[in-house]
Write a structure and sequence with these properties.
about 40% strand; alpha+beta; 6-stranded antiparallel barrel; single chain; 4 helices
Amino acid sequence: DVAGTSEAIVAALVDIGNDDAFIKVVASGVGGISESDANLALATESIILGFNVRSDSAAKKIVESEDIILSYHSIIYELIDEVKARLSGLLDPIVKEEIVGIAEVLEVFNSPKFGQVAGCVVEEGSIFKNKPARVLRDDVVIHQGELDSLRRFKDDVGEVKSGTECGVGIKNYKDIRTGDKIEVFDRKEEAQSI
């Protein structure tokens, strides 16, 4: 709406971001949003932010026909928050892993029905059948995959808690040995924030 507001907004916008995502202000100005503003946004694949202004009818036609993002604001921090949210959405999520359970292999059995089964005791946390798993030998990961079966006595179970013995089958893996560890983990995606 006025030069002072425009300068303050541009200064705030260029401070947003990090090495992976940042703001590039293509143009800024005072007055209503014009047809040339809309064409510039289209050519540069930009969004248009209006502060206490509106677009004229020619600009509105281009914005609507070309699906240009246009938002109007009257509070600066709300404009900044919207830009931060849009920028965060462009970043790939951070994938974090959390180990939820570790079991030690005590014995290995060959079952005609289930193939190779590791007789284990859960040392930490819980072992879940539906989560990804790794086999470690001497603290080195030698296989990553998923559990084929998780049994407690003769019952199929979904979870076995710490201190409990269980039988574990690992899908497409036939080299399990006594002393190996089976680590079950969770993968969680977290949105990055700016």
